[in-house]
Amino acid sequence: MEAAQITRRDAGREAVTAPARPAPEHGWWAPADPAPLGLAGFALTTFILGLVNANAISGSDVYVVLSVAGAYGGLVQLLAGMWSFAERNNFAAVAFSSYGAFWISFVLLIQFFLPEAAKAGGPLAANHAVAIYLLCWGWFTFYMWLATFRSNIALNLVFLTLWIAYLLLGIGALGHGHPTITHWGGYVTAACAVIAWYVSAAHVLNHHFGRTLLPLVPLTR
User: Fold this and answer.
1) Cβ-defined contacts of 103-106 (< 8 Å, 24+)
2) What pTM value is reported for the model?
3) Domain range for residue 140?
4) In this structure, is residue 4 part of a structural domain?
5) 25 in a domain, yes or no?
6) Average pLDDT, rounded, for the chain
7) Residue 143 placed within a domain
8) Tally of domains in the chain
9) Residues 48-95: pLDDT tens digits?
10) Helix %, strand %, coil % for the chain, to 5?
């Protein structure tokens, strides 16, 4: 997930890492900016899951999330991460690849491993496993959030709300479950997705029109 700093030669093409990052040396193939694609895949999948956790739509609709998570949130984000490696954008490569892997692992967890964990140790053990899973992803998101202070306010808010969402959802899964905390985690998750959509739209529209239509507000100059 990337940041803002419109250059003269490519208004709207924005980088996530520190301004000192060396320019990529492209060979026979130079990929387009993968950030808006990765952000869009993240936002759509995250928004639907947020609605499920907020109880805005039925929990049985989590299977709708799984289909989107495997293809758009998972595979597409993973591809965006690989293309970010080609651009030598360390932050975006780590973020997109990791969250793409998160969604793929989420599909595997819900479909295959969590039911087996519940059979082996009971619902309480399965809940604790999910809590650990979410809290560990929260730790990863926390230090990625720290890196966004060299980026822009919009991206910083994406990672801040995502970190809070992981924390709330992880706590909500502890013990026999805490529905109210989980619902709040869902609200924050949905808010995170909306901000991520904004950042994705900013990348696309600012680049396409050649000027800043949706500001991202840089945190560094």
Assistant:
1) 103/45, 103/69, 103/70, 103/73, 103/74, 103/77, 104/69, 104/70, 104/74, 104/75, 104/78, 106/66, 106/69, 106/74
2) 0.84
3) 35-209
4) no
5) no
6) 86
7) yes
8) 1
9) 999 999 998 876 777 788 989 999 999 999 999 999 998 899 999 999
10) 70, 0, 30
